[in-house]
Amino acid sequence: MQIRPLLDEVETLRRRDADADVTGVEYDSRRVVPGSLFVAMRGETTDGNRYVDAAIKQGAVAIVTDSADVFEKISREHSIAVAQVASGRRALAEISAAFFDHPEKKLKLTAATGTNGKTTTAFLLEGLLRSAKRSTVLLGTIEMHIGDKVLSSPHTTPESRDVLDIFAQGVQAGATEAVMEMSSHALEQERVWRLPVDVAIFTNLTQDHLDYHGTMERYTEAKAKLFQGVGAPPPRVAIINVDDAYASQMLDVARECKQVWSYGQSEGAEFRISQIALHAGKTSFQLTTPFGEAEVHSLLSGAVNVYNLTAAIAAAMARGLSLQECVQAAAKLQPVPGRFQTVPNQLGIAVVVDYAHTEDALTNLIALARELSGKHRVITVFGCGGDRDRTKRPKMGRAAGQGSDFVIVTSDNPRSEDPRNIADEVLQGLLPTDVEYMVELDRRDAIEAAIRMANRGDIVLIAGKGHEKEQILRGGAVPFDDVAVAAEILRALEGKQ
Fold it and tell me: How far apart are CA 286 and CA 304, in angstroms?
């Protein structure tokens, strides 16, 4: 593709064209090959403009930059095409969309945002759509799907270039629907610039990511951008959890959407939940909708998943499925990896791995375990991530202590921080609860200690990392899978019996 049509897609401050074929669009200089157009943009942790020389050495035929100095330098020293833009991120989205032949216009996109439940809701919605023979693309925290193809997912919401690449692959494979999680970071940073969202879902809002957003007010504003449209018109349909404390703010912002559906147990919810019956590995509830009423059965556990499934059903119906189709498909949907995922064993112990990494998610997880455990104990293993919101650490400690019979504080993803310092901040909230506890900073040893102390009928909760396959330490990432580690320990104990 020629350079000029690509640059015509972007509002440039200055530009100099040149004749050359563009074979790819990149924002990471390490991925540049001969023929690439390199978008150099200022990011949160680094400035892509520092790598322009490297990109040119590797064969970049055009540079788009948000730096006046870089524009002038390239204009003086090189004969390649160069353009200066006001926003590198917006330019990346606009150029990538053109390069990939606007796949975002060929898919009907449903996006979910919220502190908790995005992943499960997205997975469930994809399952409902696929049950109706819709071909889908899924982008989320756990993995990405292009039809039946499964790819690893490096971020909850990738950069726009990578999203559009996945969309293009989906279109080529025959996909007509896309489902994705939209994180507050992606909305705030405009990584989803000009993506036309057809259906938007708000699950809930609790404290998280304040290391980035600073205040709950700014965090709320970032989430609300989904219902305003990020460089695109507002969504056609907004689906909002009316039982959440932040529902009124979201409903107010969503007024520009053509249709707004609320869901929850509150009177007046368009998708009203009632008569919830919870059991281990199965759930049922009554769902009243604008299109009729039905009893919903699910293999998922917990009241939280009643909300997630209801949001997915509402979104599927917004995308044209009938209530009957949704209810029939919902009964067959499997739990999402790392979300109340049980680790099979012959010891009579319920070992559960869950992604719960906020105060609210941990409280809900322990409450469900308490309900299922009866008179038996709930033993909770958890830690808090390093280089992230420190104020939630004592709150999570308090949540763990108030609901559990025994707590093991361990390391999560400490990153550059000392795990002992993180644990000390967790203990500030844990100690006043008077729960029995221990600190074991080696996560494997902590999991083993919890399983060894459990008796038949007890529930061991391993919280915080869920589906993740690595642990991020000061020296870098190392392989670590809570499910695999727990399974290995259980097998060893079974062999001794």
Answer: 15
* Alpha carbons 35 and 381: distance in angstroms, whole number: 50
Report the half-sphere exposure of 48 (CA within 13 A, side-chain side).
23
By CB neighbour count within 10 A (0-12 exposed, 13-18 middle, 19+ buried), where does 497 fall?
Answer: exposed
Alpha-carbon gap, residue 394 to 404, rounded angstroms: 15
- Of 28, 151, 18, 19, nearest to 88 by C-alpha is 28
Rounded-to-integer distance, Cα 124 and Cα 448, Å = 32
pLDDT at 210: 58
- The pLDDT value recorded for residue 496 is 81
Yes or no: say if 271 and 310 are a contact pair by the CB < 8 Å rule. yes
- CA geometry: angle 202, 205, 210, nearest 5 deg: 130
194 and 139 in a common domain: yes
Sequence-distant (≥ 6) Cβ neighbours of residue 218 within 8 angstroms? none
DSSP structure string for 133-181: T--EEEE-SSEEEETTEEEE-SSSS--HHHHHHHHHHHHHTT--EEEEE
Residues 127 and 245 in one domain: yes
Distance between CA atoms of 418 and 441, rounded to whole angstroms?
Answer: 10
* Single pTM value for the model: 0.86
pLDDT given for residue 367 in this prediction: 92
Instruction: Locate all alpha helices (DSSP H) within 321-464, ordered by sequence.
Output: 323-330, 359-373, 392-403, 419-430, 443-453
Segment holding 131, helix H or strand E:
helix 118-131
Instruction: Say whether both 151 and 230 belong to one domain.
Output: yes
Q: What are phi and psi of 336, to 5 degrees?
A: -85, 140
pLDDT score recorded for residue 247: 97
- Structural contact between residues 120 and 143, judged by C-beta atoms closer than 8 angstroms: no
Residue 248 has a CB neighbour count (10 Å cut-off) of: 11
Query: H/E element holding 311?
Result: helix 303-318
* Three-class secondary structure of residue 15 per DSSP: strand
246 DSSP 8-state letter = T
Residues of the chain with pLDDT under 50: none
The amino acid present at 155, given as its one-letter code, is H
Q: What is the pLDDT of residue 211?
A: 60
Q: Which domain holds residue 366?
A: 341-496
Token digits of residue 462? 């391993």
Cα(400)–Cα(423) distance, rounded to whole angstroms?
13
Which of 285, 302, 330 is the endpoint of a domain? 330
Helices 303-318, 359-373: crossing angle, 10 deg rounding = 120
pLDDT (0 to 100) of residue 208: 61
Quick check: helix, strand or coil at residue 460?
strand
